[in-house]
Amino acid sequence: MKSCVALILVAVLLSLPSATAQSADAPRVAVGSKAFTESVVLGELIAHLSRLEGAEVRHRAELGGTQFLWQALISGDIDVYVDYTGTIREELLSEAIKNGTTV
Q1: Helix orientation angle between 2-15 and 37-52, rounded to the nearest 10 degrees
Q2: How far is CA 21 from CA 27, 47, 53, 83, 89, in A?
Q3: Nearest C-alpha neighbor of 9 from the set 37, 50, 56, 41
Q4: Helices (H) and strands (E) in the chain, counts
Q5: Residue 100, SS3?
Q6: What are phi and psi of 69, to 5 degrees?
Q7: Residues ≥6 apart with Cβ < 8 Å to 82
Q8: Which one, of 82, 90, 74, 86, lies nearest residue 33 by Cα?
Q9: pLDDT band at 27, cuts 50/70/90?
Q10: Which residue, 80, 60, 62, 65, is CA-closest to 13?
Q11: What does pTM read for this prediction?
Q12: CA distance 67 to 1
C-alpha cells in the first residue's frame, strides 16, 4: 500500500513543471479526497508537494466516496485523488474484470 501511494505521488510530481522553470501562469491542480481522515491527509500531502513545485492548488477535501470522486475525476472537476488499488478493483473495475474486458 505504501509503495502504491509513493508511486502515485511521484507520478503527480513528475507531471508538474519544475519551480525553476515556472512561468507567469502556474499550472492549476484540483486535488480531491474522500470523507475520511487518511484520504484527507494524503490529499493535503499531494497539494503541498504540488505547491512546492509551483502549482496553484485547490484541495477539495471530504468530497464523498469512491464513485463520487471517480466521476469528479472523469468530468475534470478534480485532477487527482488517492485511492486503494483494491477499492479501484472492486468498485470501479469489477464489471470490466468480470467480463474479461481490458482497461
Answers
A1: 30
A2: 12, 19, 10, 30, 37
A3: 50
A4: 5, 2
A5: coil
A6: -65, -35
A7: 5, 8, 33, 39, 42, 43, 46
A8: 82
A9: very high
A10: 80
A11: 0.72
A12: 20
